[in-house]
Amino acid sequence: xxxxxxxxxxxxxxxxxxFGDGRLSIHEHRNIRTMAANHSDKLxxxxxxxxxxxxxxxxxxxxxxxxxxxxxxxRMQEQGLIKEGKPLTVIDFDLPSTQKRLWVIxxxxxxxxxxxxxSHGRNSGLVKAEKFSNxxxxxxxxxxxxxxxxxYIGKHGASLRLDGLERGINDQxxxxxxxxHAADYAEPSFLKNYGRLGRSLGCPALPTEHxxxxxxxxxxxxxxxxxxxxxxxxxxxxxxxQG
Length: 243
Fold this sequence. Notes:
The chain is α+β, with helices and mostly antiparallel strands. It has six helices and eight strands. It has an eight-stranded mixed beta sheet with strand order 3-2-1-8-4-5-6-7, with helices on both faces. Helix 2 packs across helix 3 (63-78).
């Protein structure tokens, strides 16, 4: 009886305890925790580095938004969706349309390449975007991570197609014709005259100055992240969710 008890205790105390293929050993659990911690450390280091490089030129881009964008960027890389060094574009719709709320970051040099005004969808709000939708004909903006696509010439001139990567959040972007393009209602002159930018049918519309340069830079499979501080998005997103 004593011998059986000793065997049971040794079995339970074993540091390499495994319950078969369906479960992980204690060592494997530790390795997973270590890998997760290392990944988090790398993200923090990268965020700090870019933040230091760009904050003087982009005082409106908050560090917590940058970190969310970088987390999704890294996960897109891990999934083979984007190649290393592709630029990162961030739009923060927590800011009003009176502010430059789009940033293009060169991920090779970790520096800021462009900042710009950008319009939101007409049914998302007046000065600020407060409501978002993935539904066709909603004329609202959609949040989340996008993969930039190909360019074409449309009624607004050069335009850049977008593919939403998050099911139920923005995956209808291409069928909704949500693209990056220029518009007269996104011009600084419109802002000066009306105290806000005009609004699109859901597209992130840019002023004409530098827009072709921005499109040429971010086209063909780079990362675009459209942010707003919405709890439901952060809980559902496959790219920023901590789980």
